[in-house]
Structures are given as C-alpha cells and as structure tokens.
Specification:
Transcription Termination Factor Rho, Rna-binding Domain, Chain A, Domain 1
Length: 154
C-alpha cells in the first residue's frame, strides 16, 4: 500500500504522453529538446501529434522523454541505480522529493555535454584497446581434441 501512495506522487502519474510533450515543448522548444535528447522527431518537421505518434511506437524514446520530464522539467533529484533500471512511469518517487521549477537549459550547454561524453567514450575505448594490445593472453589453451590423450608429446 505504501508503494501505491509513492507511485501516486510520481509526477508522471495521470499525465498523458501528449500532455507531457506539450508541456516540455511549450517550455523548452523543439531545438533544445533535440539538442538534449537527440531525437529526430524534435528536429525534422516537429509537431506534437507526430512526436507523440513516434514516442508511442518506440518504448526507449518514450522512456528517454519521460526521464527528461522527471529530471529536467520537474527538476527531481537523479534516481538511484536501482530506480534507473525501472521505466520512469513505474518509478517510486520518495515523499520528500517534490517537483521543482524546470531546469534552465541552452543549446550551447547541450553541445558541450555531448562533446564531453564523446571525449569520455573515446578515452574509454583507447583504454580498452591498450589493455587488449599490451597484455598477451596467457590463458590461451590448445583446442580440445577428443584424441589428445592418445597423442604422444614429441
């Protein structure tokens, strides 16, 4: 029963997808939504009906927009790792966390964040490549052969 009460405090409870998209588009505009979410439904011929239609068809994009609504528009604290594994509409919002004023966002900030993420991904990939090339694989075994025990080592 306690979970039901917390679920009802989720800002997404009772909000339709159309209403959600309308609110964030009116506040941020399509350009900022595309910059932060990188979804083409907010870039090419954007409209609320077409965006809602696209978001209904693809679950991962809908969850991305709902998470944006919770943590940017409603300005809630970031969810724990366990809560991030649950779709935004099913997350339990603690009673002490109340929606605040929407976060102020700019296109320049979105581009800066995207560049930072690209640099981090590049550094991570280089790190992986260095680990693979610098350490020989000592655990290589000879292929298992059903006749191995009958062979004599010469």
């Amino acid at each position: 029963m306690n979970h039901e009460l917390n679920y009802k405090s989720n800002p997404l409870n009772g909000v339709s997808l159309k209403q959600l998209v309308t609110e964030i588009v009116e506040h941020y505009g399509y350009e900022i939504l595309h910059a932060y979410l990188n979804l083409n439904c907010f870039k090419y011929n954007p409209s609320i009906p077409s965006s809602v239609n696209f978001l209904k068809k693809t679950e991962w994009t809908r969850e991305k927009v709902e998470a944006f609504y919770l943590y940017q528009y409603s300005n809630l604290p970031k969810a724990s790792y366990e809560q991030q594994q649950i779709p935004p509409r099913d997350r339990i919002i603690p009673d002490n966390q109340k929606p605040g004023k929407p976060t102020k966002l700019t296109v320049e900030e979105a581009e800066f964040l995207r560049e930072q993420k690209a640099e981090q991904a590049s550094a991570y990939n280089k790190n992986l490549e260095n680990k693979v090339t610098s350490k020989p694989n000592k655990t290589t075994k000879k292929p298992n052969s059903p006749w191995a025990k009958y062979r004599h080592n010469r």
